Each structure stands twice: as C-alpha cells, then as structure tokens.
Amino acid sequence: MDLAHQAVLLSGVLFAIGTVGALVRRNIIVILMSIELMLNAVNLAFVAFSRIWAHVDGQIFVLMVIVVAAAEVAVGLGIVIALFRNRESINVEDASLLKW
Amino acid sequence: MIQVLFSLFALLAVIGALAMVLNVRNTIAAALSLVVTMISLGGIFVLLEAHLVAVIQIMVYAGAIVVVFLFVVMLLNLRRDVFGPSGQRLTKALGAVAGVWLVYRLLVLLEGRLPATQPLPDGFGGYRDVGMALFTDFLLPFEVTSLLLLAAIVGAIVLAKRRLD
Q: Within 13 A of A84's CA, how many CA atoms are on the CB side?
C-alpha cells in the first residue's frame, strides 16, 4: 500500500483519538490539546493529498491551519486563565452557566 | 526503509496521542505526549516530501504551541490532579463508540478510492516551491492571516489581563 494512502488512514485514526479526547475529558486544557491533535490530523491529510496529486497547494493550506491553530491556542488559553481566575477550576463542568 | 520509518513514526504518533488522551493524572505529561505526536508527524511530513512544512510543524507546534500549554499549566499550578474518576460513564462510552465508528466509516469510505500517487516534480515541497505558491497564488490569504493574528493577540491580552479598576 502506498505511503500517502497510509498517511490518510493515520490522519483518520489521529482525528478520531482527538475527537474522543475532546468528548471524554473534563480538563479544559486537555480538551484544547485534543483540538490541536485534530488540527494536526487534518494537516497530515492535507500533506498526504498534496503528495498524492504532486501539487503544492495542500501544503499552503497546512500553513494556514497552523496560523489558525496558533491563534486558537492564544485566545483559548486566555479564556482558560480568565475562567480559572473566576472559578478557581479548569474543570469544564464548573463552567456550565450557558448549559441548558 | 522508508516504509519502516513511516511505520515507526505512525506508531509513535498514535501512542503519543493515546497517552495524551488517556493520561488523567498529570497534565504536563499529557502535553509532553503531545510533543511526541507533533515530532512524529514532522517526520512523516519529511517522508511525504513536505520538507518546509515539516520544519514549520516542529518549530511552531512542538516549539511554540506546546510551550504555551506548558506555561499555562505551570502558571495555574495544576500539579495535583483535581479530577477523580468521572461519574459520567455514559459520556465516556458514547465518546469511545463515536471514535471507533468514525474510524470505521473512514476506512469504508476510503477503501480503494484513493487515486494513485503521482510522480513528483523537482524541488517539490522545498522552500522555493512552497514560497512561490504562497506569495503568488495565495498572497491574499497570506495577508489575511496577519489580520487574524492581530485579532488573536488583542483578544488574548484583553481576555487574560487583570481588571485595572
């Protein structure tokens, strides 16, 4: 089996692990890290398809995704710090004000 | 040889990801497991001829993003684990089932449908190739990312700063 095809499957596996992490864990920092893992899986899929079609555009998308991931981490961790200051906790179940 | 390296990196990436998700004791160890995954993915990018992206992956993800995570974990002083075993077994079971189902659907969807890998042109994935595409075809998205980063910086400072009054 082709290397790039295996990479597509690996990206699916990593995305699933990230999804489970974001659904199951209650530590908000680990949830953010799981989202990073999902973004990384998507990056791997982009690079694999860029290799399959021998076209460089997929790698440009990877750079864009990395920028979005960096922005997301900066804002997300800012929210975590603000939350911790108000609630003294990083458990997502302690921040259920908007839960219906 | 390349196949062996790919399998090794893939195994490391999956082990790191699982270790990150399953580690309920120590958030710092979870972040370091994430570094293992990031660096393994960098190695896989090299094997897929995306050299510039591999370098940026290691510098930005393993070098910057995870450091920010570690910084926040240490800032909040989360050494002790405040999370006992979760009472919500249903949520966990649903999450695990959803993950396995996701992988299964993907495998079914992809079976025999991926096109054959094309032969590569010279210099594919190097800084010249990627840079030419980035600064000609993708110039507008490239400039827009600067706005996004500016908004992120301002937002992070506004969210994290202490009230002055």
A: 19
